[in-house]
Design goal:
This protein has two helices and three strands. Helix content is about 40%, strand content about 5%.
């Protein structure tokens, strides 16, 4: 039996070195800095789409209210009339609500939807969100979204 004169060194576990880990982290950081802004800009535009969809859903509920009660909610009642019975007797007897499956939603930026009478372009009412800035008017993501009131209101 022949003994090996030069024993093999013990192989240590095959982990990563600190330098390799740092290189990988730098690469991940570079990729995130390139992709991140594109993803966040899409989040803002998707909020605009959600506000548009919600305003259409609320418009349908207001139209159903109008068909059953015989009138639109007053400005004082607002969109709350979709979930609570009106106070006047005639409307209360015809009310078949609630007209929403859940509570009245806030817009995607956390602000309440606006309701006024009349609407723009011959619509009987306006139902809209002020957009990302929460103020009337604006451009881009700050623009008002939904069924807008007449200009100057």
């Amino acid at each position: 039996m022949m003994l090996n004169r030069f024993p093999r060194p013990l192989r240590l576990s095959g982990g990563f070195t600190l330098l390799e880990m740092l290189v990988v982290l730098v690469i991940i950081g570079l990729i995130a800095s390139l992709v991140g802004p594109r993803l966040f800009s899409r989040v803002d535009s998707s909020k605009v789409q959600v506000a548009d969809t919600q305003s259409r859903m609320l418009r349908g509920a207001v139209e159903t209210f109008r068909l059953e009660v015989g009138r639109l909610p007053t400005v004082d009642e607002g969109l709350g009339a979709l979930t609570k019975q009106p106070t006047d007797e005639r409307a209360r007897t015809r009310w078949r609500g609630p007209y929403l499956d859940e509570a009245l939603p806030a817009d995607p930026w956390g602000n309440p939807y606006q309701y006024s009478i009349p609407g723009r372009d011959g619509l009987p009412f306006a139902l809209y969100s002020f957009g990302a800035d929460g103020k009337a008017g604006g451009e881009g993501n700050d623009a008002d979204v939904g069924f807008l009131p007449p200009a100057g209101q």
